[in-house]
Amino acid sequence: MEIKTFHGGVHPAEHKELSKESPLTQLLPKGELVYMTNQHIGKPASPVVKKGDRVLAGQIIAEAGGFVSANIVSSVSGTVKAVEPRKNASGGSAMAIVVENDGEYTLAEGVGVECDTNGLTGQEILSKVQKAGIVGMGGATFPTHVKISGGIGKVKDVLINGAECEPYITGDHRAMLERPEEIIGGATYLAKMFGVDKVIIGVEDNKQNGIDAMNKVIAEKKAPVVVEPLRCRYPQGGEKQLIQAITGRQVPPGGLPADVGCAVFNINTTICIFKAITTGMPVVNKVVTVSGSGIVDPKNIECPIGTPVSLLLDACGGVKDGTYKLIAGGPMMGMAQYTADIPVAKGTGAILAFCENEEQTVEHPQCIRCGKCVAACPVHLEPLFMYQYAEKGMVDELNEAHIMDCMECGACSYICPARMHLTHMFKTGKQLVKDKAAADRAAAEAKKKAEEAKEAAAK
Length: 459
Fold this sequence. Notes:
With 459 residues, the protein is of the alpha/beta class.
């Protein structure tokens, strides 16, 4: 069988051996849990509880703030201690709901109860997904019900992203081994909602036992699902790269998967879909890989959303002496943290800690024009020129270089022998483009108002 892949990319050391044999471990935390209202792309959810209210596990505590938004659900039973701004993993702050866990995990009415799904229509299934507050659990956090409703009638290929290409992260792999029935069940419901004959699960070929586990369930249930082995290469898990590898189609610059007839869902998103439809269980838990050279005992932990990251570190024996960096997410696209006092959110896939002997940054790197970054870029950009434009604030040139198409995957930074701070500079360059666009809009609006005022005065 031909192993499929995509243009460009790199193959960093995987380091998955640290946690891939670690089964999913349940963590039931005590104390405060913090639910950020901005755990999704789009407008933050609006709190519907206040200080002093008692809440139950599975109860909606913040409602979607608009079309591209998602409900926030309490993952424990307890009492609301505060509704106030709190720090999150992005380094900023947002409104949050703080719940004191009573340790009883009492479920809200109708949650966790198996129901007959045979007579459900596609729209009824979609309503269950929307109520559950499901988003892209791989980190993109786009509301799932919006992706489904916007793709019905347009999407011909439904893809499940099981690539898990970032080093260290193994949560999806463990889910394939331990919960294949839920994955295949969720994929089957997606096939029904989209009205397609089959759903394709793309999995990198370094997870053969995960592929075998899902194929066994597919055969037993005669499910409309196919598992497609993919070449192990980063960033295979990017939506556009997955689509190119499986279908051969390329999403156009600035385009969306639906533009080429595709919709992509994460493995754990698919599991959440299955739970929401069959038991009414909303998004209350998250599988987080806690790993890296700075972790005493790396594990895959399933914890309630809102759990402080510090408790995950404690559950893994803490961090080693000499640990210098903590990252939320993978080493390629994750964000460095200055504290472990942040909550687990829907998009938190990993918490990584690294020791001092892995620090390999260069204070004043110099480009040697080797072109390796160009060959590695999965979206056909020219990082060496984009870096210069961003460094000099050349906004027009950044636009011409299509910097907004950069997915910030870090492949160019990884492959660069000079250790140029490429990805960081591209984030800066993108902000320059956004600021210039906002300034141009403001100037155009001011000019329009001045002309209208001038015309009014002339009358």
